[in-house]
Write a structure and sequence with these properties.
By secondary structure, this protein is of the alpha+beta class. The protein has one domain (3-72, 114-255): Alpha-Beta Plaits (2-Layer Sandwich). It is 16% helix and 41% strand. It contains five helices and 18 strands. The protein has helices at residues 32-43, 51-56, 82-89, 129-140, 212-215, and strands at 3-13, 23-24, 60-66, 69-79, 96-97, 100-101, 106-125, 159-160, 165-167, 172-176, 179-180, 184-188, 199-209, 222-232, 235-236, 240-244, 249-251, 254-255. Strands 1, 2, 3, 4, 7, 8, 9, 12, 13, 14 and 18 form an eleven-stranded mixed sheet that branches. A three-stranded antiparallel sheet has the order 10-16-17, with no helix packed on it. Strand 5 (96-97) and strand 6 (100-101) form a beta hairpin. The longest helix is centred in the first third of the chain and has 12 residues, at 32-43. The two termini are 22 Å apart. 27% of the residues are buried.
């Protein structure tokens, strides 16, 4: 079993909790769906019916990370409804206010939580070692990417902290090692996570885009699959797990099995 390790740095990031609105809260580390979206981007996957996307369905993913500070920003979101446009400008035809031409629609104030100085450690495992090599090469040389590589919002750009690295089995260890690892971890239910500390979440994984075959619009309405998982804050005691001995980071591979 060879596993690909990806170390990512982000100056800022927001991984939105989908059930928050007026104040948009963020997860401390990205959910599985966000990482899967990055992989689709870097591999150039735009067709959910492609063979390449089919391979992605059998990928196992581990996500760990930490950040230095969290701030809350006050921003404006644009509302493109006709009624909000009329409320702001007085008529559908008008786009001028206070002597300035502005974008169509209205504006809504919003609070948004933002993480600073984010460091992520992502592990990928797949039965097809050639596919793992392809991901590694695509991250190192992203010539197939669909857009700028980011995690979270479009402006949350990523920097690779090291060349993506294949971790050979001899550098992996399974056993118990009690410690505070200083990272957040997703611990999925396929690892029998009942005895691990953490808050339970239903996290999105893979997505189906409505009417994609007719529209070919990859930004259309999305229907997600979910996995039950725990968010652990780094303190792990009395449990056995897979460890990257070189990095000293536990590995908790989520097995989605295409579901």
């Amino acid at each position: 079993m060879n596993i690909l390790r990806i170390r990512i740095y982000q100056p800022q990031a927001h991984y939105r909790m989908p059930f928050t609105y007026q104040r948009r809260h963020t997860y401390p580390i990205p959910p599985y769906s966000t990482v899967i979206g990055l992989l689709c981007n870097v591999l150039g996957i735009y067709d959910q019916n492609s063979d390449l996307y089919g391979k992605l369905l059998n990928l196992k993913i581990s996500i760990a990370g930490r950040f230095e500070t969290k701030i809350t920003e006050y921003i404006w979101f644009r509302n493109l409804s006709k009624s909000r446009h009329i409320e702001r400008f007085g008529s559908v035809e008008n786009r001028e206010t206070n002597g300035h031409i502005e974008h169509i629609g209205g504006q809504s104030p919003m609070w948004i939580d933002v993480l600073n100085e984010v460091h992520l450690v992502i592990y990928l495992e797949h039965e097809n070692e050639k596919f793992i090599e392809d991901i590694k090469e695509s991250l190192s040389n992203p010539t197939k990417r669909l857009e700028i590589l980011h995690l979270g919002r479009a402006e949350d750009l990523i920097v690779l902290e090291e060349e993506p690295k294949i971790i050979e089995e001899k550098h992996l260890q399974y056993g118990r090692r009690d410690a505070d690892y200083g990272h957040f971890f997703w611990i999925p239910n396929n690892l029998k996570n009942d005895n691990f500390e953490g808050l339970l979440y239903n996290l999105p994984t893979f997505v189906t885009i409505e009417n994609y075959e007719q529209t070919f619009n990859r930004h259309g309405k999305r229907n997600f699959r979910y996995i039950r998982t725990k968010l652990n804050d780094g303190l792990i005691k009395g449990q056995e797990f897979l460890l990257d001995r070189e990095a000293g980071i536990p590995i908790f591979l989520g097995d989605f099995n295409g579901k």
